[in-house]
Amino acid sequence: MTIPARSASPAGLGRLGYGGASIGNLYREVADADAEAALDAAWAGGIRYFDTAPHYGLGLSERRMGEFLRTRPRDEYVLSTKVGRVLEPNPDYSGGDDLAHEYAVPNRTVRRFDPSEAGVRRSIEDSLERLGLDRIDIAYLHDPDAYDLDRGLAEGLPALAKLRDEGVVGAIGIGTNSADAAARAVREGDLDLVMIAGRFTLLEQPALAELLPLCEARGVGVVAAAVFNSGLLATASPEAGARYDYAAVPAEVLARARRLAEACAAEGVELPVAAIQYPLRHPAVRSVVVGSARAASVEQNLARMAETVPEAFWTSLAEQGLIP
Asked: Quick one: which H or E segment has residue 142?
C-alpha cells in the first residue's frame, strides 16, 4: 500500500474535540448504532477534531470513526491517530476478550510495541486501511512510557518527523498520561502537539511544573484529554464508585474531588462544567478532547463547554487553594 501525501498542517482544533476510546468498547460493548449516534451528535454540535488510536478496541475505534467520517467532507475536520503499537494476529486466540486492557472486544489481535521507522510507517498504513480515509492529519507517539521510553523517543520521534517532512502527516506529537514523559519528548523532539491525559485537570496539575511552560516557550500546542480523570469529575457529585485514571478512586482523591464539587456548587457552577473548561485557561492548550459512546453525553459536554463561567469563580477556587 502506498501512503498518500499530506501537504499541510491541520487547521484549528476547536475548543472541544471528540475522543474515540469509548467507541472502541472501552469498559463495555457499544452497539454500532450508538457509536454512530455519538459521532453524529459531535458533528452536529460543531466538533471538527476527532481523535482515535489502534489501541482503542484493537482497531474498532478507528474502523467506526472512519466509517462515520467518510460521509463528511474531508477538508472540514481534523483527524488524529497514534503510532507505537502495531496490531498483529493473536496466535493464541481462543474466543477471549481484551478486558485486561479495558476493552470489551475479542482479542483476535494483540498489540506489539514498535516505535521503529518501519513500525511507525506500518502503523500509519494499517490505520489508513482501518479508517478507509486518504490521510491522517496528526500522528501521536502513543504511551511510549508504558513500554520503553528511551527507545520510544529515540526511534519514534525521528520516524514521525520524517513522515511529517515527507508530507505523509501534517503534524506530530506525543500522547501520554505522563507529564514527565511528555516534557522529555518536547525537549528531545521537534513536536507540533502534545496530548496529555489526566495530568492537567481541575483535580490535578502536574503538567504545570515543566510541561506546559516548556510547550508555551517552544510553541508546541497542548491537547488536554481525560479532563474528567476517567469519570470522577463527570458528575456534579463525585461518587465512590467512580473511576479515576481507569481504576477505582482512592479515598483521598475522592475527598478532594468532593471538596471541589462543593466549592463549585457554592459558586453556582457545576463541577463538570468547571472541569471541561479549566484546561483552556492555559495559553498553551489548544483543545480539550472528551469522548463518550452516548449521544446524550456528547450533547451534554457541548453544553458544558458553551456555559459562561465568570472569572470570579476561578479566583475563588484559587483563593481556597483548590487550583493553582
From this structure: strand 136-142
User: Which residue is catalytic, options 18, 56, 140, 244?
Assistant: 56
Measured from the Cβ of residue 307, the count of other Cβ atoms closer than 10 Å reads 13
Helices (H) and strands (E) in the chain, counts: 11, 14
Helix (H, G, I), strand (E, B) or coil at 154: helix
Residue with the three cell numbers 487550583? 323
The verdict on whether 56 is a catalytic residue reads yes
Question: Judging by beta carbons within 10 Å of its beta carbon (0-12, 13-18, 19+), is residue 3 exposed, middle or buried?
Answer: middle
* Helix (H/G/I), strand (E/B), else coil: 134: coil
Coarse DSSP helix, strand, coil percentages of the chain, rounded to the nearest 5 percent: 45, 20, 35
Q: What angle do CA 286, 261, 18 make, to 5 degrees?
A: 30
313 contacts: CB under 8 Å, gap ≥ 6: 264, 267, 269, 274
- pTM equals 0.95
Mean pLDDT of successive 10-residue stretches along the chain, which has 324 residues: 39 91 97 98 98 98 98 97 98 97 98 98 98 97 98 98 97 98 98 98 98 98 97 95 89 96 98 98 97 98 98 98 96
For Cα atoms 51, 53, 57, give the angle at the middle one, nearest 5 degrees. Answer: 120
CA torsion, ordered 68, 73, 74, 75, to nearest 10 deg? -140
Which residue blocks in the chain are alpha helix, DSSP H? 32-44, 60-69, 117-131, 149-151, 157-165, 179-188, 211-218, 251-266, 271-277, 295-306, 311-319
